[in-house]
Amino acid sequence: MRKRLLCVLAVALLLASGAAVSAAEKQFTIGATIWDMSNPFYANFIQGLHDAAKDFNLNLLLRDGQGDPNTQVAVVRQYIAENVDLILIVPGDSQAVVPVIIQANQAGIPVISANNRVGEGAEVVTFVGADDFYFGQQQARLLIQAIGTKGNVAYLMGELGTSAQVLRQAGFEDVLKDYPDIKIVTSISDGWDSAKSLAATQDILLKYPAGTLDAIVNQGPAGVPGSKYAQQIGRTEVKWNGEWFFALGQTCEYGYPSGSGRASKLS
């Protein structure tokens, strides 16, 4: 993903400049904003941005949306005022940023969205990220492989309103609509946060004792501590399905099933 990001940024900048000014003559300024930089998930993404800035001699401005749509909108508005050459955004609330992205469009500043999509109505050069609807479908198919066509499932979602959360849920439900005996007994947002996900898992396992819950599906990578906790308390009958570790029923360490080397990923 990082390599793709570097390539897209480089191409977009060249297109934006019309190739009239070479990178050697001008240092381009990228205004980047991530909806919540405190989320560990974005550590590699942030490193990739810094690597790209170094490799392509870019002036990188990186500002945190602090998990607040209004803050992220203000950040983008500031980038427009500073007349940056390109805006790279990982939006939190996909629709909340649409008006300010339209302002960037009107100012002639190209915009790239990454990981989460910008909502309808604004123009972006491209989106760098997963097909989240397909991702959700695959989670549902793997769930069926693990528990069969009947069972009780707890569903842990990411940050509500992000495109990844919305589209993964839509894809998940698209498959499960044909399996009415698979019941989603509870749906909780963990905000892609490992601590919140662990707390939610503890509550779920307390509420649903052994024999009443067949699986926990986590939309993102935050479920690893919860899966380890379930093993520690002997709840090994609960199957697990989450981003980065699609080998269901295995307890995971650092996002990979124990003893397996690496987990299979969606392609």
Structure report:
The protein is an alpha/beta fold and 267 residues long. It has two domains: 2-128, Response regulator (Rossmann fold); 132-257, Response regulator (Rossmann fold, 3-Layer(aba) Sandwich). The protein contains eight helices and eleven strands. The chain has helices at 2-17, 43-55, 69-81, 98-106, 132-147, 163-176, 194-207, 224-232; strands at 29-34, 59-64, 86-90, 111-114, 126-128, 151-157, 182-189, 215-218, 239-242, 252-253, 256-257. It is elongated and about 65 Å long. The chain starts with a helix and ends in a 10-residue tail after the last strand.
Summarize the structure.
This protein has helices spanning 2-17, 43-55, 69-81, 98-106, 132-147, 163-176, 194-207, 224-232, and strands at 29-34, 59-64, 86-90, 111-114, 126-128, 151-157, 182-189, 215-218, 239-242, 252-253, 256-257.
Order of the strands making up the biggest sheet: 2-1-3-4-5
Structural class computed from helices and strand pairing? alpha/beta
Largest β sheet strand count, sense and barrel closure: 5 strands, parallel
CATH topology of the largest domain, what is it called? Rossmann fold
- Mean pLDDT across the residues is 83
Number of helices: 8
Distance between the termini: 11 Å
For the record, the count of structural domains works out to 2
**N-to-C SSE string, H for helix and E for strand:** HEHEHEHEEHEHEHEHEEE
Low-confidence stretches: 1-8, 10-21, 244-267
Coarse shape:
elongated
DSSP strand count: 11
Global Rg: 20 Å
CATH class of the largest domain, anyone? Answer: Alpha Beta
Strand content: 15-25%
Q: Helix proportion of residues, in percent?
A: 25-40%
CATH superfamily of the largest domain: Response regulator
CATH architecture of the largest domain: 3-Layer(aba) Sandwich
